[in-house]
Amino acid sequence: MYCIIKMWITIYYELIFIIFVICDNEDIKTSRTVVLDYSDLAQEAESNKHNILKFLNQTRVQLKYKTQFNRLLHKLQATSNTSRRGPTRRIVAGVNTSIAAVPWQVSLREKTYPICGGSVVTSLWLLTAAHCLLRPRASELSVRLGSSWKTHGGEMYDVKQSYVHPQYARNTKVNDVGLIKLYSPLRFSSRVLPIKMVGKGNRLPADQAAVVSGWGKLKEGGPSATFLQSSTIKTIAMKLCRNSGLDRNPIDPGSMFCAGAFSQPSPDACQGDSGGPIVSEGMLIGVVSWGLGCARGNFPGVYTRLSAPVIWDWVHEHISQDS
Ligand code: 4AZ
């Protein structure tokens, strides 16, 4: 009896692994063996063995196993990125990234042309940079979600209304945050999920690792990405950032923070990544806002500080209306 149970569990381990690989074959056309602990999922799947696909498609299951699922994808990507050609260096100096690893990532378009990034914060609200929303009318905006590719796949949604932070200032770039309201709630899946926002007033330590993602330029003045890019960078102490090549005047510590590195070449956000997410410890801490060129070494990237009360309150006033 014990052997039979053990055999079933082994078969389901394999099956679940294969299903996850097949489900994501848009991005990863490899099935190298990756060792991960799937015991919880395998045991739950065991009791659903007659209808395993239906089981895996349940939002409850996908949410519950999201972390393991994403870890598997990261591992697969790490193996596919480092094999043969060595790592592919993009965002600037980032890596190809499946949307399933950052399912809150949004591509914002103006009349089908991709202009900025954004993040899913609830089923009806997306967060972006204020400066992405200054020109286009809401009727000219749409968003693509759930695809690793910039120009195809996933689902497109129309924008009902866009909102720019009332204290955003174009000249100083303070409070660079905007919101997008959709007509219809998003259908969440393993590729479309909201990201939890940082708490109000939360202190952001220096040297904290954070992931920035987007389809922006792969290098300053170069082409932009067709496949989603991400990179892990570190937050920079305000004192250091204000002494960088960026100069102290344009950096408002209340509504901005810096991230990246002073060495060169170092990963950085670039044109087209604006409005996109920077996530640390599972929380959205900032929005790609501005910089002086990309990955220049002495000019770290500047991000909107979402924990700032003036920003946090405004965002939550809107998204708590209806989510
Ligand atoms: C931009 O133009 C932009 N290196 C965004 C981020 C950075 C530079 C420029 C940071 O959207």
What does this structure look like?
The chain starts with a helix and ends with a helix. By secondary structure, the chain is α+β, with helices and mostly antiparallel strands. The strands form 2 sheets. It has a 6-stranded antiparallel beta barrel with strand order 9-10-11-14-13-12. It has a 6-stranded antiparallel barrel with strand order 2-3-4-7-6-5. β2 and β3 (113-120) form a beta hairpin. The chain has helices spanning 2-23, 39-46, 52-56, 59-64, 66-82, 238-242, 309-319, and strands spanning 95-96, 105-110, 113-120, 125-128, 141-145, 155-164, 178-182, 196-197, 209-214, 229-236, 256-259, 277-280, 283-290, 301-305. The radius of gyration is 20 Å and the shape is globular. The protein contains 7 helices and 14 strands. α1 packs across α2. The protein is 23% helix and 24% strand. It binds 4-(aminomethyl)benzoic acid. Keywords: Disulfide bond, Hydrolase, Protease, Serine protease, Signal, Zymogen.
